[in-house]
Design a protein that fits this description.
Elements (H helix, E strand, L loop, with lengths): L30 E4 L9 H13 L3 H17 L5 H8 L5 H9 L8 H6 L3 E6 L3 H10 L8 E4 H4 L6 H11 L3 E5 L2 H9 L3 E4 L23
Parallel strand pairs: 1-2, 1-4, 2-3, 4-5
């Protein structure tokens, strides 16, 4: 069975946990597992891809279709490097400039404040590129907040893989509450026996609050 990565450091309606202190994210007897994009952070990647496509005069829909159909799973599961992905989406652009632009698009997501205020044990479970995600955790002061940071490119499998959610359930050793902004991921997590919640809303003012830490980009989403 694949080991989880240890870093250093019936449908229910979507709900924002800040709305009620009784929500599971504030209970002390559960492990909270959160997605990164759209949950802890905003949805930086689709915003950046859309804006960069427009700036180049490309069709944003066509670029996004290339990402979803030709790059996404390979990047998330670690089979291609970010520079290869950028070259495919935006030929001729400097990958380091694109990565920096994406970095500056990150901002607090809908559950960021809950992550900071809750005393629960927390894991991060993300379809992501580690070399993008880990600097953001440092930038926002969250490196030490999560017991485990489980990133798809290091695990070699991505959500909504049932095997991934089953590993989380087995290694958690107790009740798990999961938050994700993908309905497919939430459905797969529920099939694996997790108490999964679909995050859809962002609190008023999201995008206006400065990130934790001194490194603030010129455009945070």
């Amino acid at each position: 069975m694949t080991a989880l990565h240890h870093p250093t450091g019936t449908d229910r309606p979507a709900v924002h946990p800040s709305d009620t202190a009784e929500h599971p994210i504030h209970r002390s007897d559960v492990l909270v597992v959160l997605d990164a994009h759209g949950v802890v952070f905003n949805r930086a990647f689709p915003m950046f891809v859309h804006d960069r496509a427009l700036a180049r005069g490309d069709d944003p829909v066509a670029v996004w279709d290339r990402w979803r159909g030709e790059c996404r799973l390979d990047l998330w599961e670690g089979r291609i490097a970010p520079d290869t992905m950028w070259a495919h989406l935006f030929p001729g652009d400097d990958p380091s400039v694109l990565t920096a632009g994406l970095r500056d698009t990150y901002d607090r997501g809908p559950l960021y404040d809950d992550v900071v205020s809750s005393r629960n044990r927390m894991w991060l479970l993300s379809n992501h590129c580690s070399e993008w995600l880990m600097p953001q955790l440092r930038r926002f002061g969250l490196v030490d907040r999560f017991e485990r940071v489980l990133v798809s490119d290091q695990l070699g499998m991505a959500k909504p893989s049932s095997a991934l959610f089953e590993l989380v359930r087995e290694e958690a050793g107790g009740p798990v509450v999961l938050y994700d902004d993908s309905e497919a991921n939430v459905a797969a997590a529920r099939r694996a026996g997790l108490d999964a919640h679909h995050v859809t809303d962002e609190p008023p003012g999201n995008g206006a609050l400065p990130p934790r830490g001194p490194d603030r980009g010129s455009h945070d989403r």
